[in-house]
Amino acid sequence: PAALRAQATRVDATAKPKPATADEQPIELPPFEVRTDQDVGYLAQNTAAGSRLNTSLLNTPGAISIFTTEFLTDIGATNVEELSEYLMNTDRDFGFLRETPQGNNFATQDRSFRVRGIATDSSGGRAVNFFKRTLEADTFNTERIEFTRGPDSILFGQGTAGTFNNQSKKANADRRRLEVSIRAGNFDAFRSTIDVNEPVVPKKVGVRLNVAHDTKNSWRPHEFKNQNRLALATHFRLTPK
């Protein structure tokens, strides 16, 4: 192939930067709170999975994969099991594990996993806001999913080879939001969700409501669905800081 010369871009050094408008509000990230305001597309900027503090991924020494809302929407994943098809070093367990079919007993009704060849615990390595969750967590009120694997997941996770942490959607006292989605598919699958955020007292109190209705017929284990979910979150800002 022929060589091409790089073209220099001419920059006007006398141009003045555009001043910030009055409507733009600065986003403050407290040390213990990780928000998704700075996520761009599939790229996440920070996490609390490595040290329980709001830390940049660049400075987190661990094997952590973060899946943003946009990525979950694009692949159509509604839970961890559907997301697991896109995870590295992770397999869904379809055989017998701990003498129970699919590795699930009556208390754990969802699919078990093997991370780096090691079986997860009875919760399937699932957590919501770093609290162990024995039942499958739906993504209708999930802002992101952080998947921690390897030694770091044992040190800061649930004591298993891999941990799937669902970060719940938070209320916002600054911005109004309304999002509705409807999806249909094979086996009479139908899913509808509503996401509403309302600043009740602007800049002080916010309320966020997420509702989901999901049904699906199937003869395969763990694929039949008939569920209605509701999640309510509030946010109180006592002082400007």
Low-pLDDT regions: none
Largest sheet: 5 strands, mixed
Specify the overall morphology. Answer: globular
Q: Structural class per helix/strand content?
A: mainly beta
Cα end-to-end separation: 58 Å
Strand content: 35-45%
The rounded Rg comes to 21 Å
Walk across the major sheet and give the strand order: 3-11-12-9-10
How much is the average pLDDT? 78
**What percentage of residues falls in helices of 4 or more residues?**
under 10%
Number of contiguous helices: 3
- Strand tally is 16
Structure summary:
The chain is mainly β and 241 residues long. The model has no long low-confidence stretch (mean pLDDT 78).
Overview of this protein structure:
The structure is a single chain. This protein has 241 residues and is mainly beta. It contains 3 helices and 16 strands. The protein is globular and about 65 Å long. The protein starts with 45 loop residues before the first strand and ends in a 5-residue tail after the last strand. The mean pLDDT is 78.
Helix and strand topology:
Layout: E1 46-47, E2 55-56, E3 63-68, H1 69-75, H2 80-83, E4 90-92, E5 96-97, E6 100-101, E7 113-115, E8 118-119, E9 126-128, E10 131-132, E11 142-149, H3 151-156, E12 162-168, E13 177-185, E14 189-201, E15 205-216, E16 225-236
Parallel strand pairs: 9-12
Antiparallel strand pairs: 1-2, 3-11, 4-7, 5-6, 7-8, 9-10, 11-12, 13-14, 14-15, 15-16
